[in-house]
Amino acid sequence: MEALEIARWQFGITTVYHFLMVPLTIGLGLLVAIMQTQWHRTGQEHYLRMTKFWGKLFLINFIMGVATGLVQEFQFGMAWSEYSRFVGDVFGAPLAMEALLAFFVESTFLGLWIFGWGRLPGRIHLACLWAAVLASVLSAYFILVANSWMQHPVGVELVDGRPVMNDAWAVLTNSTALVAFPHTIFAALAVAGAFLLGIGWYHLWKRRADGLDTVDARGNLVVGALASRSRARDAVDHRVWLRSARMGAVVAMIAFAGTAVTGDIQGKLMFEQQPMKMAAAEAACHDGTGFSLLSVGNLGSQNCDDIVAVVEVPGLLSFLANGDFETPVQGVNTLLPSYQEKYGTNLPDDPMYGERAGMAVDYVPVMEVTYWGFRIMIGFGLIAAAAAAVALWVLRRGTVPPSRWLMRLAVFGILAPFGANSAGWIFTEMGRQPFVVAPNPDPSGVDGVFMFTAAAVSPGVSAAELVVSLVVLTLIYAVLLVIEVRLLTAYVRGGVAAAMPELAQQDPPRSDDGTRGKDDGDVLSFAY
Length: 528
What we know:
Structural class: mainly alpha
């Protein structure tokens, strides 16, 4: 493999791994803030316990997200220096805003929230959490602004072959970013909803398996408690998991609806801005109006004439692209000549391309990735939403069936929205190839603002050096993954008592505000 391919694998692996943490951090943070708001408003203990338990999982994931996210920016200079030079004038503003206005605010107020339990007035403490959570949302917006410029460059002028920003407002209000942002937030809420639902279901099942909660002959739920002075698994504990599971199911369904609506708008923009990406996602070789649910043939072939749609919905592709059922959508065979005419059939004979100079350019993205990535994204989203609807109906009785297999299915169901998010991100990025900065097809846009991925890699980095960094980063990320999974698993199994050890003590020492003990023996007790 040459340096370009290794660099792409390295960035892809580290970015996809990091993106596993991002939606959970954003979505779970918003839900924890809502939980604490409810506790502040009502004073009901189950909301406090929910805030403490889910807040600890949020903190673990946030820390891992920061650790893995820092590598992304270093990679720009390490393996993609030519790309950094090309986009630097544009990316500097949103990335600086992300660091100064969002990340610093997020970190500062999250620290105040962590150490402010029992020390700050209730309203101020709650405001700190909301400030941190909203800053994380703002951080996501600035990152999406930068990424959306790669998908649809606006607000710049060419100076000596490099784009220079001349309209910051146009960059910040890029139509691609304005649609990608709510789509990403809804997707993050879908992840958090499934997370609450799966873990809540597990604990409700565990209470039944341990004989705490039973169902009488009439089908009525009888909520029990441990026969001890410990409050770790009392009736309030049941309310924590039931409320969490129901909240997760409702959030997951609402999030899927929001993702579907924003995704439809985003798809229509992609048909305008990156038509080849959407044609490859559909494996549409010829112009038409039908959407293929399943196609067979050689999806990896440049000549896609042998691809046949086995199951097709007439008119749906036209609706996704144009909002009607009759307007034909251009296929690969129609788009390919226009791309070649505009951007050339071969890479320029320029030293920046090294040995790749003069090579033929393949404007069709890898169809296996775009075609199946598009369907995995939609399919996993549908599965998660349907499972949430079924779960909400089952939870109407206040508990879950005693089936171990259903419990395992609910827990593994947490992975569905994660899969949908990752598939969507991979589809978005790989569907842009062979461009790292896709051209703006709008006639009013700046002509010539695009960059081939082949020109973006660092010229001074060898394939051997990239292999070493790829192996090292992959191993480090694998270790971090094991650590995070073990931490999350330990605290999930421990239940609320893992976040509030004082509940499991026979005579728990109380602080002035009555929320925690003086010496709970928890290694993360400093956080509360």
